[in-house]
Amino acid sequence: MRTIEFLSQTIQVLKYITIPGLFQNPPDSVALFLDNDLKPSIFPSLNAWYTSTLHSLSTTSTTTFDQNPNSDLHDKSGLLHVYRTVFNGFSASLTAHEADALRTTPGVLSVIRDQPRQLHTTRTPQFLGLVSGPTSQPNSLISSANAGAGIVVAVLDTGIDPTHRSFSAAGQPNPPSKWKGSCQAGPSFPATSCNNKLVGARFFATGFKAGSTPKNGSTDILSPYDTNGHGTHTASTIAGCPADRASFFGFATGVATGIAPRAHVAVYKICWSSGCFESDILAAFDNAVEDGADIISLSVGGGPTPYHLDSTSIGAFSALNYHGVLVSASSGNDGPGAMTATNIAPWITTVGASTIDRRFPADVTLGDGTVLSGASLYSGKDPSVNKWLPLVYAGNLSSLRLGFRSSAPFCMRGSLDPAATRGKVVLCERGVVKRAEKGLAVKEAGGVGMIISNQFLDGEGVVPDAHLLPAVDIGFSEGKRVHDYIHTAASPTVRLSFHGTQIEVKPAPVVASFSGRGPSAQSAFIIKPDIIAPGVGIIAAWTNSTSPTELLPDERRTEFNILSRTSMSCPHVSGIAALLKAAHPDWSPAAIRSAIMITAYVNDNLGRDLLDESTGNRSIEWAHGSGHIDPERAADPGLVYELSTDDYTNFLCSSNYTELDIRTITRTAVNCSQNSSKPWDLNYPSVSIMMNQPVPTTSGNYEIIVHRTLTSVRDANSTYMASMKEPSGVHMVIVPDKLVFSRKGEKQQFVVKISANASRLQAGASRTEFGYISWTDGERRVRSPVAFTWHQSF
């Protein structure tokens, strides 16, 4: 069986989902789009047409449609999801033969396979400047926004634990009158679970049920209840109520509060033990917009995908352009390599991760006296802590069972020989399995401690983990020193020590090693991620249904958990967007994102350029985008870059998307022959230009003109002067170099004339240099990064 989604405005069949065991050779991804005008007049509604279409197919196949009365289907005629808001259409389970029949139907435009996507604070409000002083007094943005009251943030994630005190309704205002959401009851989630804080909860599982086999030990519950913890964590980061005496086994003690503590949360559970299926993501988008959400927060992603084949991109386009809903999404955790960012459509606010000025230090002291710094959230009282113990390398401890020689270095469960491991500290390589699971493997083999070393591609960045035994995570360079010591010492020994919570760490912020980076494989004309925000060592609410490591043998339970992913940075931006929306209800999603980007900073708390954790060197814009978010400055940017639906359509035309592809995204017919703009003319808060060199050469000159329009968001006269830093090898001129505004809403245009010589490169190679343009009125700064890329064609 396959799940296929029909989107109409026309109908678009968006997905195939393969159920394991039914098809050994599934067909390629396809997509289908039928014009609504093709609906025969005998059908009173689109739903009737959809149903008839399915039944006509089923007469020649063995497909049986789900008639389970307890399923979350929108109707019982074979439709899995019916989409009415961010696009029109439905999803259904079909065989490959039926999909082929649809592919040949007149008017069909596209079909996309349904695939699972993966899930990607006591101090961050202070670090972000939202509160200050020993009593954490609110600064101007929280005050002017009434802490986000009246704003509804839709969280598309693993659900929520409604019993957690972070979602108390005490002192919470009523939701806005426009809100139409509901509280979908189910196991562990009675209809009374919702309140003035948690104003809505739904779950979407038809894609999950049609496209996966439950994992062994799965705790999936068909209700909005969160058995994973991830959704509870992200929701409380956005809008959790202040919760005093919060901590994670003594780490990060303090008051845990969301970024917008009076905003309302609506939860749309889309993620299950086997992933987050695109058909369910689309259904959640559809319902969140129809319910009246102001912000959609999505800490979920997959691999880079063309916009017209990406359900998140399609859903976000309609949410933003047709309903005024800002969509914030994580950039993924596949860094530090290039071209690893996800959720990179220009109508999505893409968020990378950074550290804050708090860490959880731990030391590895080798027998020769060398002290290496790492991180850990180990909180136990094991007698081996701070004691000298034998040190061994996991690669030398293979259990000799078939297949375990190659897995032993990564400390996979069952791969370590207990006789060689017992009583020792084991050095494990990072990768292949979860870091906390490596500790479980060592513990099961009788080991008493562990060191996890980054591999070369991981770089120097480490994240703290809630290990089950004394364990320290260290960077690649430190790991190499441990390897060398084990190789040369006659009887290697080690001592592990743990130092709790350290604050006021410098430098901070630093770009997290794991954070997904550009350039974008889909468009070289957009710098992604857009922004970075706190995503390392973030404490927030946790469900009581699972352990902090999510490992079944881990019997620990905690009210709060500390996690490190771009999944943690995205909700920070979602919460800040909620504050900005509350403070400026007339701002569009493009204005909010622009305010966030143009006011970002690119220096750490030592006053130096932002660093990249993976290398210790200066970070580049492919890693940090416009910089680190600065909420207080974003509340008063002075100017913004606005964007319209036509702007995005022109961008897609000039980016060589076909009119058919564009219609899949926008649901409207386009005529690209009338478009004369260049892709770098999209009125985006950053500038990215790529020049393809057809033959290797150092001669020739490129001349480009970039067009931009700024809009005033202040009721005051203002004059802005331009400044810039040219990318190396590039000459820029800003015309005019002075802009005068006399009223709110006034627009002024400018151009950037750019010239550069050709660059000698190997075939297929690229070179990018960065600079910026900036406008200032003496108090405010409107800064946009500029990327210029030379690419040598093959």
Automatic annotation (TrEMBL):
GO terms for biological process: proteolysis. It is found in: Secreted. It holds the Pfam family fn3_6. Keywords: Glycoprotein, Hydrolase, Protease, Secreted, Serine protease, Signal. Residues 148-616 form the Peptidase S8/S53 domain. CDD domains: PA_subtilisin_like, Peptidases_S8_3. GO terms for cellular component: extracellular region. The active site is at residues 157, 230, 567. GO terms for molecular function: serine-type endopeptidase activity. PANTHER family: PROPROTEIN CONVERTASE SUBTILISIN/KEXIN. Belongs to the peptidase S8 family. This is Subtilisin-like protease. The lineage of its organism: Eukaryota, Viridiplantae, Streptophyta, Embryophyta, Tracheophyta.
